Amino acid sequence: MTTAQLVEQIKKKQSFLCIGLDVDLNKIPEHLLKEEDPIFAFNKAIIDATHHLCVAYKPNTAFYEAYGLKGWKALEKTINYLNENHPEIFTIADAKRGDIGNTSTMYAKAFFEDLAFDSVTVAPYMGKDSVEPFLAFQDKHTIMLGLTSNAGAFDFQTKLVDGKELYKKVLETSKTWKNSQNLMYVVGATKAEYLADIRQIIPDSFLLVPGVGAQGGNLQDVCKYGMNDSVGLLINSSRGIIYASKDEDYAQVAAEKAKELQAEMAEILSV
Amino acid sequence: MTTAQLVEQIKKKQSFLCIGLDVDLNKIPEHLLKEEDPIFAFNKAIIDATHHLCVAYKPNTAFYEAYGLKGWKALEKTINYLNENHPEIFTIADAKRGDIGNTSTMYAKAFFEDLAFDSVTVAPYMGKDSVEPFLAFQDKHTIMLGLTSNAGAFDFQTKLVDGKELYKKVLETSKTWKNSQNLMYVVGATKAEYLADIRQIIPDSFLLVPGVGAQGGNLQDVCKYGMNDSVGLLINSSRGIIYASKDEDYAQVAAEKAKELQAEMAEILSV
Is residue B74 a contact partner of residue B101, using CB atoms and an 8 Å limit? Predict the structure, then answer.
């Protein structure tokens, strides 16, 4: 998918919501556990109920790998279901991968070719040759960790390197990499005011923003500091939507929660 | 597996060799492609031929994920084969994972419980709460990226933070984390002289050293600067062993290459 197609969807749906499909079998409604594939059954119901309210879905691979082969199969079914029924939706494999060159190419093939995701998240620690193999795929997007929303972000990401925070150094350096136009960035919403600085470095890139809702970020602030002329934001919510109800009405309640966020986004977009 | 058991194996086998099982279907002998599961068939033959010469095997998850469900199944069969037939061997899931707390716990479950690896590699960018969930597992080992062996290591890892290189900051900081005794570190062999500095910071930890052979590192130098009283080193070789021959004799040639390294290690251990 091209960035232009993503922007078109955002304008059409009046939404820049991404829903995180982080399925924990201990948290989904009990009646689903009787299904042959409870993870996919859960995802399918969530997708069916919310696809008109969001522009992206983001399964975090950890939640699938934890269930072994069954989990990987559920991930495959989920992405296939999305690509077949909602090809206009932007899909994100939240995998946070990164390895030396030829190995990163294998990861890129896993997510871009075998599973046919539109994008994958990657970690920057190993530098240029660990990320460029992902960037080589046309119309695919590589979403690199910039400033994350967890407490540990302050351990290294905000330390000063050459007089500026490491995450800013990461953002700046990545702009010099080959096919850097295929980069997007993860920027945590718990530090919305940092977004102004970040926009100085990467004014045009899309930002994937986790941490609105459950992790305490504020949508208005994120938009105030982070939005650009093409919107340039994907706001992720996982638990706040998919686990809003643990009863049989979980998909309906998820849709209500998604609708609340979408309505707030429509209002922001209308200004 | 405990660290003491690993050290015991090293002394018994006179080897601290780790063999990387990075199976690329384009690189294995052609006759294997007729097998039902070529990846596992390749791994099984390599393991059967080399298990007495090494103390650890390290499948890199990228090479399995790239083949989807079939790949994940081959990974599962490989680790099960190792645990059933060679429980004394230390197993490493080279996955370079890392995510926010509850998500890292899911990754830890995937590799320590579902697949029953002894250890997993992780990336440090997201800090303390992305690594500690792995450290909570008893007699399991978390091998964190310190200084990697690729060119991109110089993009961020060697930049100065508070007057010292980022990778040193990472090593130092990690020592303060809960259950840090379960940490080992990835340190690239292409910079053997850095090992002296690294040993100042983490004198007692095991180091997983990739990059001997194909990537140009020198075993003698690595041992000179990196060995401690408990040996404290696992030297990884992947391509130099498993792809030494592309013919039907591949397992035998792999064993010859492994034997060369093991003999060199035995000599170093005897001094």
Answer: no
Give the phi and the psi of residue B117 in degrees, each rounded to 5.
-75, 155
Mean pLDDT of B47-70: 98
Question: Best interface-test mutation with A: which of B80, B134, B155 has the largest number of A CBs within 10 A?
Answer: B155
Record: contact B110-A62, CB cut-off 8 A: yes
Report whether B112 contacts B83 (CB < 8 A): no
* Burial class for B178, CB neighbours closer than 10 Å (0-12, 13-18, 19+): exposed
Contact B99/A166, CB-based, under 8 Å?
A: no
Contact check, Cβ <8 Å, B155/A162: no
State how far residue A93 is from chain B, nearest Cα, in angstroms.
13
Q: What is the pLDDT of residues B146-172, one digit of tens each?
A: 999 899 999 999 999 989 999 999 999
Strand order in the sheet with A164-165: A164-165, A160-161, B160-161, B164-165
Distance CA B36, CA B212 (A): 33
Spatial distance between the Cα atoms of B48 and B29, rounded to a whole number of angstroms: 17
Q: Do A125 and B103 lie within an 8 Å CB cutoff?
A: no
Domains of chain A and CATH, by start: 3-270 (3.20.20.70)
Model pLDDT for residues A112-147, shown as the tens digit of each residue? 999 999 999 999 999 999 999 999 999 999 999 999
Mutate to test the interface with B, among A125, A161, A236 (most CBs of B within 10 A): A125
Nearest to B168 by CA among B199, B132, B123, B136: B199
Catalytic (active-site) positions of A: 96
Known catalytic residues of B are 96
Q: What angle do CA B173, A132, B169 make, to 5 degrees?
A: 10
Give ipTM to 2 decimals.
0.96
Tell me if A226 sits within 8 A of A202, measured CB to CB.
no
Q: Which chain A residue shows the shortest CA-CA distance from B105?
A: A62
